[in-house]
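USER: If only I could read backbone structure tokens as easily as an amino acid sequence. It would mean a lot if you studied the pair and described how this chain folds. Here is the record:
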Amino acid sequence: MLDRAVRTLAGWFPEVLVAVRTPGTRVPAPARRVVDAPPGEGPLAALATALEATRTPWAFVVGCDMPDLDAAFARFLVARATPDLDAVVPETARGPEPLHAVWRAGVAPVLRTALAGGERALHRALRGLRVDRVTPDAYAACPGATPALRDCDTAGDLRARGIALPVGGPA
């Protein structure tokens, strides 16, 4: 799924970063690998690391377990990013989707402070930030939004979406 995400994102954005736990982790070209700091602390640390490493003022962030990326939905979210915001985060019935969102790179120090205070939950780190919480009604005009916000946690999820598993991949 990572290869698929990198290929897709590389066609839309000038830079693709992949946050990884360990330095030796393979990252598909043309992505640039950034190592979580500190390693093993989860998505909040990975996001802070990626935002510190980006060369752009804003970053479209997506979990590699969301294979149905949609260009129109990504552009829709990016277009909502304004200087008075820290993030543009779509909401679903499950709550906010901070790993399919647009983040201001300058918010990395705030995320680091949350980490230093013991926070590990990305959705709780949104508290106190200036967030455009994009409701399903607001993104209803983007037909690819709902599929884009569904993650794949198991091999069965992938098969159900018609995504071929690599040989030797998950069962």
